[in-house]
Design brief:
Shape: globular
Order of helices and strands: HHHEHEEEHEHEHEHEHEEHHHHH
Low-confidence stretches: 1-47
Helix content: 25-40%
Mean pLDDT: 90
Length: 425
């Protein structure tokens, strides 16, 4: 008996009418493929039903004991919430024995919506000052740190070396250490998981705001683990206190945590965008739009000079694991080619477990260089790749698999160093 026959039979039964709404929903799910609404299948990898407690949840359970009796400054944004959705700002402001006196915001501001320099301001709910670390200064100054006993950091990171929240944390650690101010990290999951390590290691002569430490683009560490590593390896000497998570394991991607994804910045609205971000973002400097200002940032890539059908065919022929490409037309509302009609590709994730975003980025860069040598400049990828050797190999037309292999010696050394600072199995 097919679903339509079942639906007809329910009309003859008054008892069945009680369950008709639920039955209709189930039948819609069954019938949708037949009506041309194919259900997408994306392999997601490890999924867990348990709930991860982040650092702020654990701090709440401890009744804020590490901060009791202290005057506190909080570095946070819209991602700084507990498992019930309450802002860390409000929790610290109301914590018994804790005096929250200042708030500090990173790039994109306290609400995570700005894509330019961010001015300082005031928090409406608490009346506390908000000092921007992405405006006139990117470091805490004597003036804003005066009288503080502790700096608390609670921000969801993206798990990518050139995402600037890492540097904001490290700069604040350095300034706290100079003034003997306790630095407390409320740990959160690495949304790409704690196992994936990819990309070239940053050249030491290219350290800057989008590259604080010589590590790979995808490093598989939490912010608490990074803080420990920076503190020792960079000889910061901060009085560091990491509030560990509970229930998080290294192999857990964000989908496995039970936590709600809150976009940490304007162009990472979904976990699919985040997974593609490390490999696709590096391409923008070469001369293409990566979908900023569209509904699908990092899931779109194009330029006015690209022929979408041609590029999609060439990229699909490369058989890059975990993705497929379709011709696309779009008009970016921000970034490269703002308000210009672009052709290119839509990037569709088919298997999160097999997708290697940095390998994907190198494959796309190689194809763009081959198809459009007069428009795409692979030399400019140095801006975020941060590896002169990798860029030179791309410019010489070396095959992507060989470029990826060239990273392995440095990645092995990084894994050995990183192992000393891991907090979770």
């Amino acid at each position: 008996m097919n679903p339509l026959q079942i639906l007809r039979l329910t009309k003859a039964s008054s008892a069945a009418n009680l369950f008709r709404p639920a039955l209709l929903a189930c039948l819609w799910f069954l019938l949708a493929p037949a009506a041309g609404h194919a259900r997408p299948h994306v392999k997601t990898g490890h999924v867990k039903t348990g709930h991860v407690k982040t650092g702020i949840d654990v701090l709440e359970e401890a009744h804020f004991a590490p901060l009791r009796g202290k005057r506190v400054g909080l570095i946070t944004n819209q991602t700084g919430v507990d498992s019930r959705g309450r802002r860390t700002i409000d929790l610290l402001a109301g914590a018994k024995g804790v005096k929250l006196v200042a708030i500090f915001s990173p790039e994109h501001g306290i609400a995570g919506q700005a894509d330019e320099k961010v001015p300082s301001g005031t928090d409406d709910a608490t009346g506390l000052p908000i000092y921007s670390f992405y405006g006139e200064t990117r470091r805490p100054t004597d003036e804003v740190l005066r009288g503080l006993d502790a700096l608390v950091f609670d921000i969801q990171d993206a798990g990518v070396r050139f995402y600037t929240y890492i540097t904001t944390m490290a700069y604040a650690m350095e300034e706290a250490a100079r003034r003997q101010i306790l630095f407390c990290v409320l740990d959160r999951p690495n949304p790409l998981g704690g196992v994936r390590i990819e990309g070239p290691v940053l050249d030491r002569d290219r350290l800057n705001f989008v590259g604080y430490f010589p590590m790979p683009v995808v490093y598989g560490m939490t912010m608490g683990e990074l803080a420990k590593m920076f503190n020792v390896e960079n000889h910061i000497g901060a009085g560091l206190h990491v509030i560990d998570m509970r229930g998080w394991r290294r192999r857990d991607t964000f989908q496995a945590t039970g936590l709600k994804w809150i976009s940490p910045s304007p162009n990472l609205p979904t976990l699919e965008a985040l997974l593609l971000y490390p490999g696709v973002e590096i391409l923008q400097a070469g001369g293409v739009s990566v979908g900023r200002g569209t509904a699908k940032p990092f899931e779109l890539l194009g330029a006015p000079w690209i022929r979408g059908t041609e590029l999609a065919q060439k990229l699909n022929a490369r058989r890059i694991p975990g993705v497929r490409f379709e011709p696309a037309q779009f008009t970016p509302g921000a970034g490269m080619y703002k308000d210009a009609a672009c052709e290119g590709v839509g990037i569709h994730v088919t298997d999160r477990t097999s997708l290697l975003p940095m390998s994907l980025g190198i494959e796309i860069a190689a194809e763009l260089s081959a198809l459009y040598p007069d428009h795409f400049d692979s030399g400019k990828l140095i801006e975020l790749l941060g590896s002169n050797d990798t860029v030179e190999r791309l410019k010489r037309g070396q095959v992507p698999a060989s470029i990826v292999r060239s990273w392995q010696t440095q990645l092995a050394a990084f894994r050995r160093m990183r192992a000393k600072y891991l907090l979770y199995r």
